[in-house]
């Protein structure tokens, strides 16, 4: 990922300062009042802002919805925007809350999940190195800048990671349809790793067998499943609700 496009993603990249921005390109004729905050943030960060023809921005982003803003990133280091798995594991909150994505392939879904994870206060997200969406310009745009704050680690295999999480005292809970365990009846205030599967196949068998529990979101309509990013939002904000209410303390 060598660029970020869109007003909110570029602004959050400036605020977070996790990655070095080389310069920001703004489309000529763009509505100036919408860009004032971005221009001021760039000035404070010492990042140059240049006006360019909108067609040039269209070509740079392959005609994506860039909203007249493209931030060009300095060349990344070998790891780019990812962090090491140990970085997340060694700095989790109390109680911990992490998310494992077992083969989410759509970058729009990944971006939406990262946005939800940031808003819900997730400690970190783990994704596989292969057969899964990776961090990209599309993910950054869909996440509305959340990619600048959520720590994402790529791992070769989720199964050994699950063993490591269990050794650290976390319960590993998969989210799948068709079980009698309703997600809101489960104690989500415990040290927790939530596993979400791919768009088509769900959680893989080997990963499912490693989970301590499988919970489901009840369905009442004719469609029997939710989009994975919506399911992430439902379960994560139930976890946040329970933690804010101190569910275990009032039992």
What does this protein look like?
With 251 residues, the protein is of the alpha/beta class. The chain has 2 domains: 3-73, 60s Ribosomal Protein L30, Chain: A; 85-250, 3-Layer(aba) Sandwich (Alpha/beta knot), CATH 3.40.1280. The chain is 36% helix and 20% strand. The strands form 2 sheets. It has a 6-stranded parallel beta sheet, sandwiched between helices. Strands 1-4-2-3 form a 4-stranded mixed beta sheet.
Shape: elongated
Low-confidence stretches: none
Query: What is the CATH homologous superfamily assignment of the largest domain?
Result: SPOUT methyltransferase, trefoil knot domain
Q: Write down the Rg.
A: 20 Å
Query: Would you tell me which CATH topology of the largest domain applies?
Result: Alpha/beta knot
Distance, first to last CA: 47 Å
Average of per-residue pLDDT values: 90
Q: Specify the structural class.
A: alpha/beta
| Widest beta sheet: strand line-up | 7-6-5-9-8-10
Strand tally, please?
Answer: 10
Number of helices, where a helix is a run of at least 4 consecutive DSSP H or I residues: 9
Helix content: 25-40%
Largest sheet: 6 strands, parallel
What is the CATH C-level name of the largest domain? Alpha Beta
Oligomeric status:
single chain
Per CATH, which architecture of the largest domain? Answer: 3-Layer(aba) Sandwich
Query: H/E element string?
Result: EHEHEHEHEHEHEHEEHEH
> How many independent structural domains?
2
| Share in β-strands | 15-25%
